[in-house]
């Protein structure tokens, strides 16, 4: 059955209320009548039932969500990353209360706003039966009635002083393209913003700043490009001979030597080559090329002397470790690196 | 890494033997790559010395005495500068009782400096400028800080780490006097003594324990500074 | 006064009695809410000035935009060269940028107070001024929120203060008052925007109904399809009430937390328990003054004399006087206790203010914040004189700016070790950035006032419908209907 919407405008509240009363007597239910006005009239003024109000309830739910967010931001973070500061407890209560207060209020108010949008079915982009004079102080009464009653309702409105009557046949609900486009834009913007933020935060999109202090003047002279190994350096098994340095005898791979090598490795090498020696350390992403995988076959295929040379002189981006590791310690590290072979 | 023992690093400053020669200041600059700012900047109040010799005059002319007091980061147990940092750039190492400064985390809010009663934190107003060959003298163990970052005395944490690691590899306890910060090393009158208060036999413990001459700066603030000053008799500084 | 109920309020005839008719005329001149006009005229009164682009408008806009660009250029230079180009030095690590931060946050307090607190208290004269005040809140907060970022050493790393997961696997530390600040300002700023927007919805619908072209399309989207149905009004009212009650404690918390940035520090002169309420009152004081200035300016520039009348400036002036008294009370509290304690370093600070190099600033502050309001604002003639109240408001801004200046760089120059004392003098970069920040607020305000209705028309209507005159004996007395809850 086709429904017809009829809108009439009134000047004042009293005739509006009277008309609504007559329409109700005619059998038009309250939920089929909509009153529109330029200022908020109380329902009692117009003899209307009080509309359902759920915004306060929704904001209460928002307060709960805010509380949870606040708890995560305080206790959650402190427990995830327990770092000591100034002799304060890891999870200090008073600062937590401050954060909880703010997040609860934030949740309350944001929820009240989104509750308002949701309860009013905002935003509405499709055309609705409306008259721009309503914002000039007129009161609009919109009745939605069956087609048979339409003429009668219209005359009631007219008799009671309504002017600028409009009539429209209710169209069946259909999806509104503009609304879909609106929400798609909003969702797209949020996703894009979040994605870009995370990509930058996780260094996928790397922005190099000189103030990151990664390129250091203080270590610049240790970094490549290096000279190639001197002609006198002969990578052979046995003592290593480097021009200007005493010959270095290998240290036998005893359990003690490997143990020493392990600790020296964790101090000197693991920062870049990773604790497991596989080239995966928190820092390795910052190097191009990445630190080599010491467990790999090409590395393990090198002779001990070649590894000794690399530690002593550096190679490519790797600085020389001569200052950090004494000759015997280098052999300890080599013995340990041999145990890493896959 | 294996578990390392708990430490309580402390510095004892004997004011009775300090001559105010500034050798510690120079040594600190060399060891810690502390930028040397221009004369103009010093006039504007932006001098950077992780350790400084404050000079005070005692008495009235002609009976005047110069008093020197070396002031460096006091490595407080309850450091006021720490909790105000929003990004954990300054935080506490419980194990070593050191007040750490992580340059790379610092965004330069400078709140720590405001909340530092000793005013021993320094802000890089400009990028440090080490010209030409000066770069070659930089200590590779210490980061050169960029503009916009706070810095302060670390008790030469790089030397502490190296000594501890050497002891660890050699599988022996750290010996007293093995860790020598640059200022201590340079002090001609041995007015500075560095040591571990957790070690009952250390020189620092011996000097601090029951010493009538000891005091700490602004002790009433309750920050528990870990630098002890020794001075005999009454002095204006002691008040 | 008896009227027939189906005659619109703007068409009701005057009483036949001449005496009463005179009285009515008088009341109408006094009170906006008793002076209803044909709504289309009122709508026009708000909408028409929005189209007016005289050469003065373009000149002001261009000037302000130029200053904002200068702000950007200097900030970029500062980021490239380092903070050394400012006048900061070692004991004085916080200076003009933080002064601006505190000052602008303070300005951001009055708007919310006027629209939320006066709404909760149902004070009727707030109706036409709430939009202008809320707008000032939002723009002042935006300017204020920029300053911590301008202030930090590595501004491009300032996002490390945000609680977002990063590759660094470290989150901000909630031990720090700066993070409390961030949370509070985020809450306050976003909620102030939403609060202003909810109140703006019916006016956007009004603008939508009376415009064509791009403006119509813009308002159509922004009004979200508002028709003014009962459900919409009811939900809007609940939402506004939730916001009003929730945003007042948030407003108090914001400036309290700003004061804690200082009070948490062991810096002498800062470590005070009275700082929280003292700062809140200071914020309201300077904020109320700023609202008066904004009202005077938009009244003049947009010809809103119908809406903004003597009663509004009178009300705001009384409010200002009350805040001046309260501010003096808190300031005296904050002064007396350290003075009585006679701690050496506090003594040094007090001497610096009373007889030292900071004395001119201090006495000027006392004059602007106490002497001037106390000697003038008790008079209704002063309060309702636009030039007088404008001048007083400007001087109160000067006084409150000086107050923050004295608390931050002047106080920071003194501490327990005379060896580390210092004096701060503003250098040109931060001075121009400060000017640029004021220009930014002005620019946003000017542009906003050309796009959005600066008077909450629906609130004025509502007041005009609800308020009336009742005859008691021989006089007509304004009364207010307060239906429902």
**SS field, number of helical segments of chain C:** 16
How are the strands of the largest sheet of chain C arranged? Answer: 1-2
Structural class of chain A: alpha+beta
Which spans of chain A have pLDDT < 50 for at least 5 consecutive residues? none
- Give the largest interface pair and sizes: A-C, 78 and 74 residues
Number of strands of chain C: 2
Stated plainly, the CATH topology of chain C is called: Formate dehydrogenase/DMSO reductase fold
For the residues shown, what is the average pLDDT of chain C? Answer: 90
Counting DSSP E segments of at least 2 residues, the number of strands of chain A comes to 4
Task: Indicate the mean pLDDT of chain A.
Answer: 85
Radius of gyration of chain C, whole Å: 24 Å
CATH architecture of chain C: Up-down Bundle
Order of helices and strands of chain C: HHHHHHHHHHHHHHHHEE
Oligomer, anyone?
A: heterotrimer
- Helix percent of chain A reads 40-55%
Would you kindly provide a written description of the structure presented here, covering whatever features stand out?
The complex is a heterotrimer of chains A (342), B (239) and C (485). Chain A folds into two domains: 1-174, no CATH class; 220-339, Orthogonal Bundle (Cytochrome Bc1 Complex, Chain D, domain 2). In chain A, 43% of the residues lie in helices and 8% in strands. Chain A contains nine helices and four strands; from the N terminus they run βαβααβαβααααα. In chain A, strands 2-3-1-4 form a four-stranded antiparallel β-sheet. In chain A, helix 2 runs antiparallel to helix 3, helix 6 packs across helix 9 and helix 8 (304-313) crosses helix 9 (327-339). The mean pLDDT of chain A is 85. Chain B has a single domain, classed as Alpha-Beta Plaits, CATH 3.30.70.20. Helices cover 18% and strands 19% of the residues of chain B. Chain B contains six helices and ten strands; from the N terminus they run βααββββαββααβαββ. Chain B has helices at 23-32, 39-43, 111-114, 157-169, 182-186, 203-208; strands spanning 9-14, 52-58, 65-71, 90-93, 98-101, 121-123, 150-152, 192-196, 214-215, 227-230. In chain B, strand 4 (90-93) and strand 5 form a beta hairpin. Residues 234-239 of chain B have low confidence and may be disordered. Chain C is mainly α and 485 residues long. Chain C has one domain (9-158, 172-414, 431-480): Formate dehydrogenase/DMSO reductase domain (Formate dehydrogenase/DMSO reductase fold, Up-down Bundle). Chain C is built from 16 helices and two strands. The longest helix of chain C is centred in the middle third of the chain and has 34 residues, at 230-263. The mean pLDDT of chain C is 90.
């Amino acid at each position: 059955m086709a429904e017809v919407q009829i809108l009439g405008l009134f000047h004042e509240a009293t005739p509006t209320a009277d008309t609504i009363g007559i329409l109700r007597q005619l059998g038009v239910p309250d939920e089929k009548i909509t009153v529109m006005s330029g200022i908020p009239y109380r329902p009692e003024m117009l003899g209307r039932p009080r509309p359902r109000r759920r915004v306060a309830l929704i904001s209460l739910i928002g307060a709960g969500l805010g509380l949870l967010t606040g708890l995560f931001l305080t206790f959650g973070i402190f427990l995830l990353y327990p770092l000591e500061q100034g002799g304060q407890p890891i999870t200090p209560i008073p600062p937590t209360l401050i954060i909880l207060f703010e997040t609860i209020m934030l949740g309350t108010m944001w929820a009240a706003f989104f509750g308002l949008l949701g309860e009013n079915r905002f935003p509405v982009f499709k055309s609705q039966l409306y008259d721009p004079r309503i914002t000039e102080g007129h009161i609009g009464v919109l009745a939605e009635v069956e087609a048979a009653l339409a003429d009668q309702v219209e005359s009631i409105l007219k008799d009671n002083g309504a002017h600028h009557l409009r009539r429209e046949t209710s169209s069946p609900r259909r999806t509104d393209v503009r609304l879909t486009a609106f929400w798609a834009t909003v969702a797209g913007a949020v996703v894009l913003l979040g994605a870009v933020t995370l990509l930058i935060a996780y260094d996928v999109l790397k922005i190099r700043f000189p103030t990151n202090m990664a390129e250091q003047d203080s270590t610049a002279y240790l970094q490549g490009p290096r000279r190639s190994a001197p002609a006198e350096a002969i990578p052979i098994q046995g003592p290593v001979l480097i021009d200007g340095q005493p010959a270095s005898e290998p240290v036998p791979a005893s359990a003690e030597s490997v143990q020493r090598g392990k600790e020296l490795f964790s101090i000197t090498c693991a920062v870049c080559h990773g604790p497991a020696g596989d080239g995966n350390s928190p820092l390795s992403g910052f190097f191009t090329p990445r630190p080599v995988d010491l467990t790999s076959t090409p590395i393990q295929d090198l002779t001990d002397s070649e590894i000794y040379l690399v530690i002593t002189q550096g190679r490519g981006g790797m600085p020389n470790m001569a200052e950090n590791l004494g000759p015997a310690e280098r052999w300890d590290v080599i013995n340990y690196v041999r145990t890493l072979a896959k | 890494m294996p578990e390392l023992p708990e430490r309580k690093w402390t510095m004892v400053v004997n004011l009775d033997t300090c001559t105010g020669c500034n050798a510690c200041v120079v040594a600190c600059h060399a060891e810690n790559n502390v930028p040397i700012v221009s004369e103009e900047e010093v006039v504007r109040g932006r001098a950077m010395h992780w350790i400084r010799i404050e000079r005070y005059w005692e008495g009235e002319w002609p009976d005047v005495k110069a008093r020197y007091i070396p002031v460096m980061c006091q490595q407080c147990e309850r450091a006021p500068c720490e909790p105000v940092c929003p990004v954990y750039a300054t935080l506490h190492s419980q194990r070593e009782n050191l007040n750490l400064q992580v340059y790379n985390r610092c965004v330069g809010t400078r709140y720590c400096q405001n909340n530092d009663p000793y005013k021993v934190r320094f802000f890089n107003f400009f990028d440090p400028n080490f010209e030409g060959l000066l770069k070659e003298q930089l200590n590779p163990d210490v980061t050169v800080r960029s503009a916009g970052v706070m810095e302060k005395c670390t008790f030469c944490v790089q030397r502490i780490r190296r000594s501890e690691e050497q002891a660890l590899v050699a599988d022996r306890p750290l010996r007293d006097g093995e860790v020598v910060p640059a200022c201590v090393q340079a002090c001609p009158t041995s007015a500075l003594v560095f040591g571990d208060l957790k070690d009952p036999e250390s020189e620092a413990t011996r000097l601090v324990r029951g010493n009538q001459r000891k005091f700490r700066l602004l002790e009433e603030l309750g920050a528990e500074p870990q630098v002890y000053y020794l001075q005999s008799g009454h002095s204006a500084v002691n008040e | 006064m008896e009227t027939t109920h189906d005659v619109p309020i703007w068409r009701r005839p005057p009483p036949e009695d001449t005496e009463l008719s005179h009285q009515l005329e008088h009341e109408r001149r006094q009170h906006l809410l008793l002076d209803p006009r044909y709504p289309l005229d009122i709508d026009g009164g708000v909408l028409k000035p929005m189209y007016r682009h005289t050469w003065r408008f373009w000149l002001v806009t261009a000037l302000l935009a130029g200053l904002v660009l200068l702000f950007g250029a200097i900030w970029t230079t500062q980021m490239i060269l380092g903070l050394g180009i400012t006048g900061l030095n070692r004991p004085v690590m916080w200076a003009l940028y933080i002064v601006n931060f505190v000052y602008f946050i303070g300005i951001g307090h009055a708007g919310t107070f006027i629209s939320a607190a006066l709404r909760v208290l149902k004070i009727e004269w707030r109706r036409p001024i709430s939009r202008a005040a809320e707008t000032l809140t939002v723009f002042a907060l935006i300017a204020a929120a920029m300053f911590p970022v301008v202030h930090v050493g590595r501004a491009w790393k300032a996002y490390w203060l945000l609680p977002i997961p990063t590759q660094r696997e470290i989150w901000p530390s909630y031990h720090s008052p700066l993070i409390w600040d961030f949370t509070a300002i985020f809450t306050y700023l976003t909620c102030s925007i939403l609060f202003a927007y909810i109140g703006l919805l019916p006016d956007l619908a009004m603008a939508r109904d009376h415009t064509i072209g791009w403006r119509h399309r813009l308002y159509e989207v922004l009004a979200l399809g508002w028709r003014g149905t009962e459900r919409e009004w009811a939900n809007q009212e609940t939402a506004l009430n939730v916001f009003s009650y929730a945003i007042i404690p948030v407003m108090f918390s914001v400036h309290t937390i700003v004061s804690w940035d200082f009070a948490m520090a062991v810096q002498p002169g800062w470590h005070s328990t009275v700082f929280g309420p003292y700062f809140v009152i200071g914020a309201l004081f300077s904020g109320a003054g700023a609202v008066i200035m904004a009202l005077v300016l938009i009244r003049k520039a947009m010809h809103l004399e119908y809406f903004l009348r003597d009663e509004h400036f009178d009300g705001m002036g009384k409010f200002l006087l009350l805040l001046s008294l309260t501010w003096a009370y808190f300031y005296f509290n904050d002064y007396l206790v350290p003075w009585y304690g006679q701690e050496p370093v506090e003594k040094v600070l007090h001497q610096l203010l009373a007889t030292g190099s900071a004395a001119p600033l201090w006495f000027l502050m006392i004059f602007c914040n106490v002497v001037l309001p106390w000697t003038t604002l008790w008079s209704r003639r002063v309060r309702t004189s636009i030039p007088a109240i404008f001048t007083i408001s400007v001087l109160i801004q000067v006084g409150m700016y000086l107050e923050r200046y004295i608390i931050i760089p002047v106080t920071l120059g003194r501490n327990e070790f005379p060896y580390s004392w210092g004096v701060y003098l503003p250098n040109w970069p931060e001075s121009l950035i400060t000017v640029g920040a004021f220009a930014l607020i002005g620019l946003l305000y000017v542009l906003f006032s050309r796009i959005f209705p600066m008077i909450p028309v629906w609130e004025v209507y509502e007041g005009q419908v609800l308020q009336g005159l009742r005859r008691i004996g021989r006089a007509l007395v304004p009364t207010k209907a307060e239906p429902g809850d």
